[in-house]
Request: fold
Amino acid sequence: MNRLFAPIYVIIMTLVFAAAAAAQQPLQVTIDRGNLEPTPIAIPDFIETGSGELHGADIAEVVRNDLASSALFITVPENAFIENITNIDLRPRFQDWRIINADALLAGRVTQQPDGRLLVSFRLWDTRLEEQMLGLQFVTAPENWRRVAHKVADAVYERLTGESGYFDTRVVYVAEGTGPDGIPTRRLAVMDQDG
Reply:
């Protein structure tokens, strides 16, 4: 009988010692990429109320570019939109935005104030829960429309990700060149983070 159990005893002891040795080795896991799908967001051109150059389409384009450049968002193409937003104070038809797979909708308006400044208002909607997530207004001089667009993108980014936005960041750099008399020159320059 000992002869029968001896091989089994050797196999069991080998497994016990192998398991003990494996338990002392640290587990190594290599993570080489994340699995994050960008959030689809619809951003129609901002409605313009008033006369003059109000930059409603320009503001929306800068916001679209800012959010898309983060790789956390994908903008739904405008030619897919079913509903035409004509008043940001009314609830949108959420089913029209869900059918084109927009998880979020940013609706905005640019209004010219009596003093010539621009009032930029917007609402961010969750199309799945059918509720407003954010609503803000900025007042600015017309020449600052681009900076306001970056601020809108920052607010949307922060609300949807929980992290502070960075689109209103400015970069300071030294530009080198040659003056009219051939003398090398340097000048301090400032630009938006997107150029």
About this structure: The helical segments are 2-24, 56-69, 94-98, 145-161. The radius of gyration is 29 Å.
